[in-house]
Amino acid sequence: MTRDTHAGLTDAAATPVEVGATYIRWGLGLFVFGLVSGFIPLAHYMHGSFEEVHEAFLKNVTLWWGCAFTLAVYVAQVGSLGMIALGLCYVVLARDGALTSLTSAERMAPAPNSVVEYEFKISR
Fold it and tell me: Which keywords belong to this entry (predicted)?
């Protein structure tokens, strides 16, 4: 199995505004993913609400961490807000003329149209 990865902003013509817009798009996408995946802990708690619970259990703060997926949702949402903030910094600094060029590492991440193709070869 071989893997080919194609990234969209690896050329030398990538501008700070394009990189910033890509960060903002990815950040918004991850934030929506966090909102949608936030229903998994809610479903977990709704399922647990059918069980007989007592007053002490409901006052326990660990009830919110009863589903292991809760932390993953928070990480996705906080990370997405960080990506949006970085993207806005790129756009604002480029607009003000304080940021005129990018390094090759800045052009690589995140790739806007990254496509991963897998090719399976069966050898006999």
Answer: Membrane, Transmembrane, Transmembrane helix
Identify any residues that bridge with 3 across adjacent strands, giving them in sequence order.
118
* DSSP string computed for the chain: -EEEEE-SS-STT--HHHHHHHHHHHHHHHHHHHHHHTHHHHHHHHHHTTS---HHHHT-GGGGGSSTHHHHHHHHHHHHHHHHHHHHHHHHHHHHTS-----HHHHHSS-TT-EEEEE-----
Question: What interhelical angle do 39-48 and 16-37 show, nearest 10?
Answer: 10
For residue 56, give both structure tokens.
């002490």
